Request: fold
Amino acid sequence: MGGHGAAPAATVSSKPAQPTNVLRPDQNGEIQLVAKVAKQEVAPGVVKEVWTYNGSVPGPEIRVKQGETVRVRFKNELPVPTTIHWHGLPVPNAMDGVPGVTQNAVKPGEEFVYEFKATVSGTYMYHSHQDSANQVDRGLYGAIVVEEPQSAYDRDYTLMLDEWMKDDNAGGMDHGAMGGMMHGSGDGTAGQNMEGMHGTQGTQGMQGMHGGSGGAAQEMSMTDMMRQHMKLYDIFTVNGKSGSLIPPLKVKEGERVRLRLINIGTLPHALHLHGHAFTVVARDGQSVAEPRPMKDQLVTVAPGERVDIAFTADNPGTWYLESHDEGTAAAPGMKVAIQYEGASKQTDRPNETAKLPGVDLLNYGKAEKGPFTLDQKYDVEYTMELGTAMGKTGMVFTINGKTFPDTPPIRVKKGDLVKVRLINRSPMDEHPMHLHGHFYQVLSKNGKPLTGAPVIKDTLNVKPGEEYVVAFRADNPGHWMFHCHVLHHAAAGMVTQVRYDGYQSKVKPDPNDKPE
Ligand code: C2O
Ligand code: CU
Reply:
């Protein structure tokens, strides 16, 4: 779709070249974003009605310099209320974009001005936080890059990964309906249904999982649901496009190239860079000390995560960065060509079904002392058990047996050192847990201290049976969401909050607000 690249007036092309449109603050220091409905060809011949910022999915890539103040004048031209959340950026609480918690949802026709200082460089994103399982799925997202003072790269590309459905009514169950099915009753007492699920592993254990109160949806086993889910998402996209619609990334021999991988979808994506040794230079925007180069290893990016990889263009030709996701026919569509200027011949072949080892991103880089240790004294300790259960009206996803807003919050005082143990008791679901307003250090996995460079993140994918310890300093007063970034899990209950003692939010929630 040629129209996608058409830049709105305030857009300036960045240096180096970008595959998406880039928006920097205008002469008045402002960035204008408008939420509106548009049409976009997401896969060859598949034109969808999408919800956008400034007319495209993703919205413009916002670029600001570290230390710069970001002022975003946001206008809502959608038929429904919405907000913008600055995912990963430690903004003041009132700018965090969570309806009913940090602001009221912006009603159709209304405006809201977001203003914050971009204090930490790196790769972040923005997206709606109102009814997000639905609004983000329709396309309300974009990247925001906070540039370091001096870039070490000649090319800097941002790739946002997502999934779509060719037919929104596939199998008589549209996405909204699925969201509805998964949507919890919010009775807050799902814990009672957990018993039968503890300790079950793999697909077998799931067959017998039924809810207490009947209904067709509840008779569906989790395996069926998983299969449905994988099948329904039959288009995988990079920057809102799939397959031959994805523009190639241009490079020149000898250049240093950075690829900022961002997952805004609901499935993890395992990517393979062909033909080049590469390093992982940042996780969730935070740089990795002395990353070791590797080749032909898969980099997995979970929903909500960002992984920056870097390589030297030292192998002229055309190469792929492609999905090696298993169990889906959509993987071949998530394939980006890396094209050397002047290289005409096709040197590479896709091999998306090849089994390759994955990079262990948590034990990687040079071992150094991080801000926190396992054995220091903490002011607050919280154990977060993540679970799957049957609620009254469908599947719910729980924290300590409860669904939001009945989940117990993490109560802190400003300055507290906080340690959180994350345990995934769901038999099959991965839960990438995202904390707003703070970075945490990941200290251990399954009882073993991590060994590489300190892992500073805001989103950590916790797989079934896994247990992690993370720590952070409570240095940004407010009421902050801590939730699963599989957004339909969040919508079905898997949300809690970090709440600072004495913090007064000015927001009076109204019925338009849907915080998850
Ligand atoms: Cu990316 Cu609470 O969100
Ligand atoms: Cu989850």
In short: Residues 397, 429, 431, 484, 486, 489, 494 surround copper (II) ion (ligand 2) (CB under 6 Å).
